[in-house]
Amino acid sequence: MDQQNPSTEKSLYWSPYLAGVAIGLTLVLTYYVMGHGLGASGAYTQLSARMLQIEAPVHAEANAYLRSYLHLGSLFQSWIVIEMFGVLLGGFLGALTARRFRFQIERGPRIGGEDRLIFALVGGGVVGFGSRLAQGCTSGQALSGGAVLAVGSWLFTVAFFLGGYMFAWFARRAWQ
Amino acid sequence: MMGPLIPNEILTPEIGLVFALVAGLLFGFFLERAGFGSARKLTAIFYFQDFALLRVMFTAVVVGAVGLLLLGAAGQIDLGMLAIPGTYLWPQALGGLLIGLGFVIGGY
């Protein structure tokens, strides 16, 4: 594997346009069946609300925001939790059948595995907080909201790329 | 059949939960085949090195938008029944900015 330039691995993946059409058609199918699009971060909110309910039930149920996630009988009656389970499984099968499944901490040549995991934890926390502010992540807002031309979703998308390009320099040690 | 099928009560919510697994499987499989499994490939967008995933994403958005528009024009889906994300300018702008920041730190 080339450590410097991920683009040399491009041929391992589908053509971006083919993959884009496949994801776009999956999205159309989801809107056609469900009336809503695909998501990701909502599953983590559902999971967090449940974990807080176990640890501090009074607090969780007194919180109007979290309560809205607790009305379902079980975690697996939540659409987005099942969908995310499918995403994990689908990604796993994709990697397996493309013969690129392996255990690794993917990182740039200048960062150690431990530091990379700290970066992942911090970055994940920031993404989690941001996704609750925006009511969605790159799946729910940029992709699903973008396809139905939601104004706020396009604002989100612009802000997302702005943030990425503004702050990439500070995180370059992890990747470059 | 007039979509969206579940809001129109053509299919039950229980079938919707089964469909969730199917939709997730397809989404996850295609994302992986596109290269979204690699944090380095994803972050390469922000170092001007590899824009493949940017092409994937915007192709998907355009196919989604045009697909829904065509289904609507053909009378196969009631576009007025779709869940459209609301507009909250500052939360969405700040949330998007934070996700951009977290994305280049964490990789996803």
Tell me what you see in this structure.
The complex is a heterodimer of chains A (176) and B (108). Chain A has helices spanning 16-34, 41-55, 57-62, 64-67, 79-97, 113-133, 138-147, 151-167. By secondary structure, chain A is an all-alpha fold. Chain A has a domain at 106-176. In chain A, helix 2 packs across helix 5. Chain A is globular. The two termini of chain A are 14 Å apart. The mean pLDDT of chain A is 92. Chain B is mostly helical and 108 residues long. Chain B has one domain. Helix content of chain B is 62%, strand content 0%. The longest helix of chain B has 22 residues, at 13-34. At the A-B interface, helix 1, helix 5, helix 6, helix 7 and helix 8 of A face helix 1, helix 2, helix 3 and helix 4 of B.
Helical region count of chain B?
4
Largest sheet of chain B: none
Q: What is the averaged pLDDT score of chain B?
A: 97
Number of strands of chain A: 0
Quaternary state of this entry equals heterodimer
**Element order, helices and strands of chain B?**
HHHH
Report a brief summary of the structure.
The complex is a heterodimer of chains A (176) and B (108). With 176 residues, chain A is mostly helical.
